[in-house]
Prior knowledge:
The complex is a heterodimer. Chain A is an alpha+beta fold. Chain A is built from four helices and eleven strands.
Amino acid sequence: MSEKNMSEKYWLKTDSGEWEVVIGLEVHAQVLSDSKLFSSAPTSFAADPNSKVSLLDAAMPGMLPVLNKKCIEQAVKTGFGINAKINKVSVFDRKNYFYADLPQGYQISQFYHPIVGEGHLNLDLKDDVSKKVRIERIHLEQDAGKSIHDLQPSKTCIDLNRCGTALMEIVTFPDMRTPEEAMAFVKKLRLILRYLGTSDGNMDEGSMRADVNVSVHKPGTPFGARAEIKTSTQFDLLAKPSNMKQPAKQIS
Amino acid sequence: MKERGAEIIDISLPHTELGLPVYYMVNPSEASSNYARYDGLRYGLRVAGDTLQEMYSNTRTEGFGDEVKRRIMIGTHALSAGCYEEYYLRAQKVRRKIYEDFQNAFKKVDVILTPTTASDAFALDDEKMDPMAMYLEDIFTVGANLAGLPGISIPAGFSENDLPLGMQLLGPALSEPTLFNAALAIEEEASFKHRIIEGL
């Protein structure tokens, strides 16, 4: 990266000197498809609770997953959209954990062999500055159901409609240095997803969510330990300097 | 068998003895994941608790038997971060070797004949009924499971304790018709009769 391509410096000033902020993103985008990643249940936002749930989504004994071809096509298309290598062989793995909105007791995801390999996006920042952000991978995985804690005083309600819906997890390298760059990345990515018709990128409905990994370091030294800020669904949250409080804590 | 036209050829499955450690790594791992869905939330037994964690714990403590719990614990450990590569992944690699053994053997023979178990049956109150001894009994049968092959066990006579013994035929994937025919031929030639043993 040449110096003239750098955007305005965003360094945190403290008693111990200046610290550079390093940001990486994990963006979850719901795949636009008629049915779920491994079942024939329809994908739909705002349907009656538990009305779009197949026997597989509810983890009935003996049900076996059948991969949805459309979801693979959508992931490959997205891979082309971010200038990425498409892996001709990719493998699904189970991520095991117990939670009430995860009926199977595991999420089917891709850990070792994702469907899309390395790619990049070029961000157009202000003052005609452009910046390349490298993308590490895109993998496909199942979304979980929803736990609703505020409907009843002592009970949690579970809605499995979203359970098993296909997500693309788009993982960047830690290439961003300011909240504005992170925001520009998400906006550019959303534009591409929408143009390709592979995700509606709708943050209000939760069909696009971003985990932000932030660390700080002295410029020119190795990266520091990272803190993860979970599930931002609003652009301004991403860009808010107050979100930098967490990394700032690490300095002291 | 020779009388029915079979040709007897000795073969070797060099990784057979690794079958047991591999099977008892892979099977508990799969069990721990596959049984996660029996959490008391949607179907089956539910034993109440004050929190979700407690309900899980109460339900699964009461609902599963000892052997299932044993396998879930072994499997959860084998799949845990830091152990996965060392245990589960390594077991999967050896599993491939076992599969290749069978593929090589089936270049020479149509079916493989082995004992079904290493000894005759234990009594229910036998001291040997500990889990490890039970696992060792599976040495001849786990290979088919690991390699994804069909097998058929047929009566083969009686032990010196007058207990029934079995032998098994293993064949390549989708060779069930051959296995049924070969098993029938053995049954007809050997003409094992049912026996009722007094005083057992």
